[in-house]
Amino acid sequence: MDLAKTLEGIGFREVEAEVYLATLELGEAIASDIAKKSRLKRPSVYVILKDLIKHGYVSSYSRRGITRFVARDPKLVVSAALEKAQNASAALPEFLSFLKITEVAKPRIQYFDELPGIIAVMEDTIVTGNKTVLVWADIELSWNTLREYYPEYIRKKNERGVFVEGIFLDNAVGRMFKERGKIEKREVRLVPADKFPMSNEINIYDDKVAIISHKDLMGVIIQNQQIADTQRSVFKLGWEAAGEYAGNVE
User: Fold this and answer.
1) Pick from 99-103, 159-163, 236-240: least confident
2) pLDDT at residue 23 above 60?
3) Domains detected in the chain
4) Fewest CB within a 10 Å sphere: which of 75, 131, 166, 211?
């Protein structure tokens, strides 16, 4: 496990993570030893250590006129991160109330590009209130773009109890996703690729519609209840029609 990346994920800057880990490994140390261990310049390490002390991740004391630094117990670091997450979760209803206050007929639209942007769109689809995501896709395009990310996505989706109903093109990857449906909380209906070509992926969830172009590495999230509900109805129509094709009859 990349511990530095884990620390960055809970709010550490990259250099703070390196200095904290160096201090933790050394047990207790003077700044010059921490600088050598972290491969950072000593003046920078002093500044970073002051920030870590301010955040409560490192403590210091003097012995014979020399300041020594000690990393706080990692349990305290994780506990602080969990407390922040719990506070944010408790505040979520209040945050969402602002959306209702400012809701107007004009949809809220967010644009994303490059691979990190596509992943951000996928992450948004599983932070869902109704626990069901409806998907139209040539899942082979999706798989080719997100092959390394998909195991993490499926893990998070399953942990959060999010179920997927997918209308996918009938190809090798589409059939693989259908076969893994029970394990990965997904029901798939396949449609002929030559009859229904799809170059974009569409995800419908909550009051949102996410459209991804895997070829162009770009995506958009449209947030509007009426648009989402209409797309849901269109999907249901396609779902019923897709059930007539071979391989979809249970």
Assistant:
1) 99-103
2) yes
3) 3-75 (1.10.10.10), 106-242 (3.30.870.10)
4) 75
Question: How far is residue 113's CA from residue 12's CA, in Å, rounded to a whole number?
Answer: 25
Going by pLDDT thresholds of 50, 70 and 90, the confidence category of residue 228 is very high
Mean pLDDT of 141-158: 91
Task: Give mean pLDDT, residues 105-115.
Answer: 86
- In the chain, the amino acid numbered 137 is A
CA–CA dist 42, 96 (Å, integer): 45
Whether the Cβ atoms of residue 198 and residue 210 lie closer than 8 Å to each other:
no
**DSSP H helical ranges for 138-201:** 139-146, 150-159, 172-179
Give, in order, the Cα–Cα distances in Å from 107 to each of 110, 216, 221, 222: 10, 23, 10, 6
The number of C-alpha atoms within 13 Å of 9 and in the hemisphere containing its C-beta is 8
In angstroms, rounded to a whole number, what is the distance separating the alpha carbons of residues 135 and 209?
10
Separation between Cα atoms, residue 240 and residue 170, nearest integer Å? 16
Q: How far is CA 6 from the centre of its chain?
A: 14
Q: What value, to the nearest 5°, has the Cα angle with vertex 38 and ends 25 and 85?
A: 70
Contact 157, 185 (CB under 8 A): yes
* Residue that has been written with the tokens 């590009």 in this structure: 113
Per-residue pLDDT tens over the stretch 50-69: 888 988 889 888 878 888 89
Sequence-distant (6+) residues with CB within 8 A of 222 are 107, 108, 109, 208, 209, 210, 211, 228
Q: How far apart are CA 210 and CA 220, in angstroms?
A: 6
